[in-house]
Design brief:
The structure is a single chain. The protein has helices at residues 4-7, 59-82, 110-118, 136-154, 182-190, 209-226, 235-244, 248-268, and strands spanning 23-27, 32-37, 45-50, 90-94, 99-103, 108-109, 157-158, 167-170, 194-197, 204-205. By secondary structure, it is of the alpha+beta class. The chain has 2 domains: 4-103, Phosphorylase Kinase, domain 1, CATH 3.30.200.20; 108-268, Transferase(Phosphotransferase), domain 1 (Orthogonal Bundle). A 5-stranded antiparallel beta sheet has the order 1-2-3-5-4, covered by helices on one side. Helix 3 runs antiparallel to helix 5 and helix 4 (136-154) crosses helix 7 (235-244). It is globular, with a radius of gyration of 20 Å. The two termini are 39 Å apart. The chain binds adenosine-5'-triphosphate (ATP). Residues 25-26, 28, 30-31, 33, 47, 49, 88, 102-105, 109, 165-166, 198-199, 201 line the site of adenosine-5'-triphosphate (ATP). This is EKC/KEOPS complex subunit BUD32.
Length: 269
């Protein structure tokens, strides 16, 4: 079998220091993500997002598209970072060469944290008795997600692909972590941490309620299919979004229409 990493060579920037071997983290249809020591602080890591040339595309068109996509993603990230939205900082970029270097976010995707919390529960949430369960750590995480999305929309950015895989849980320092041992404490630790939004490959600048509502709808649908056993808690995300973002009422009103259209579409097949 061909080793995927050798199909396309890594970008030149990653070959300059032979002592630092980049680690290929993911390889998607469009790009690859490497973890590599930061050239600015060698005791820290950074993430290098690379869009290799596509041999099936016309080279001039391909170069233009790659440059535009990297530039646009870096621009949106920069804007969010400057305005205090929790996203990775952009450290360097060479859009023409198809890469940007961003801050490495420690921790796991929110998807993994929520699934650890949910553990081995039956898929049919209705059969579970939640009355005896303290769900505060999980609902607190949902509220942090709503605050992060509210902050994003406040800066005039819509993400385009909000899912719990495109959010990381950056670990808290020990003194902020839930105390104790045993299953309950372990579950609480799984959903602890700051929410950092990643993957702005489909993001755009927009102030429209409709675009923001679609962003929330995408998250709602992704959440329901990734975490069906926590679907009844999704409203906590919307509640905290409403508190975090002044223009939320208009967006949430639009969300009703977007849902309606979604239902009609799925009825028509
Ligand atoms: N800054 C980061 N720090 C740590 N891990 C990251 C970071 N950015 C991305 N990752 C990890 O790499 C994975 C892929 O990253 P990302 O979603 O940005 O790339 P992609 O899906 O290939 O992008 P695109 O959808 O734009 O083609 C993420 O799911 C996450 O696990």
């Amino acid at each position: 079998m061909t080793e995927p990493a050798t199909e396309f060579p890594p970008p030149k920037i990653l070959t300059l220091s032979p002592a630092h071997k980049p680690i290929l983290i993911t390889q998607g249809a469009e790009g690859r993500l490497y973890k590599t020591p930061s050239p600015f602080q060698p005791d820290q890591f950074c993430a290098l997002k690379y869009r290799p040339p596509k041999p099936y595309r016309h080279p001039i068109l391909d170069a233009r598209l790659t440059k535009a996509r990297i530039s646009s993603e870096a621009k949106v990230l920069d804007r969010c970072y400057r305005e205090g939205v929790p996203v990775p900082a952009v450290l360097a970029k060479d859009a023409a060469a198809g890469w940007m270097m961003i801050e490495w976010i420690e921790g796991e995707p929110v998807r993994v944290g929520i699934n650890k919390w949910l553990g081995e529960r039956p898929e049919d949430d209705a059969v579970v008795d939640h009355s005896q369960e303290d769900e505060t750590p999980l609902t607190d995480l949902m509220k942090r997600i709503g605050v992060a999305v509210g902050a994003l929309h406040r800066t005039g950015v819509v993400h385009g692909d909000l899912t719990t895989s495109n959010m990381m849980l950056r670990p808290w320092a020990d003194d902020r972590l839930p105390n104790g041992h045993g299953d309950k404490a372990e579950k609480a630790k799984a959903v602890a941490g700051d929410v950092v939004v990643i993957d702005f490959g489909l993001a755009m600048q927009s102030q429209s309620d409709e675009d923001r509502a679609v962003d929330l709808y995408v998250l709602e649908r992704a959440f329901a299919s990734t975490h069906p056993r926590a679907e009844r808690l999704f409203h906590h995300i919307l509640d905290s979004y409403r508190e975090a973002f002044k223009k939320a009422p208009g967006v949430l009103h639009k969300l009703e229409d977007v849902r309606m259209r979604g239902r009609k579409r799925s009825m028509l097949g």
